[in-house]
Amino acid sequence: MKGTILTSTPHRLVMGGAALLALTAVFPFGWLAHQWPAFHTVLYFVLRGESAHIVGHFLLMSVVGTAVLLIFPALRHRPAVYLAIMLAFGMSQEILQLLSYKKRPFMGADLFDIVVDLIGATVIFALFRIVEARREDAHGTR
Known about the structure:
By secondary structure, the chain is an all-alpha fold. It has helices spanning 12-24, 29-35, 37-46, 50-71, 79-102, 108-139.
């Protein structure tokens, strides 16, 4: 029985890349934008406006959620643990931004970003579960 990329055990190279991606997600890119004008130009061209900022958070945590579920396939059946890990990623990202360059207390906008992060992570979790359920139905393994 051959699995899909979403249901099979990942190759070491995929795991390494996914781990690097997941760790990169908490990097305070806003701080880098303040330090490096060229990066600021690119970042704010891509993420200009609030809607782009929201989409950016959603996509980033969707990609990180995918990485986490590829690295740790057992989390596909442990939603509470998975969401706790994703909450930790989102909170870490916001805290690093606050400490590195925003230099202000936690505010409602930061909480909103974390909620968007969790929505992205939840969508990915649901997609993994749907793909896995369909695969099990197709193979009669449920």
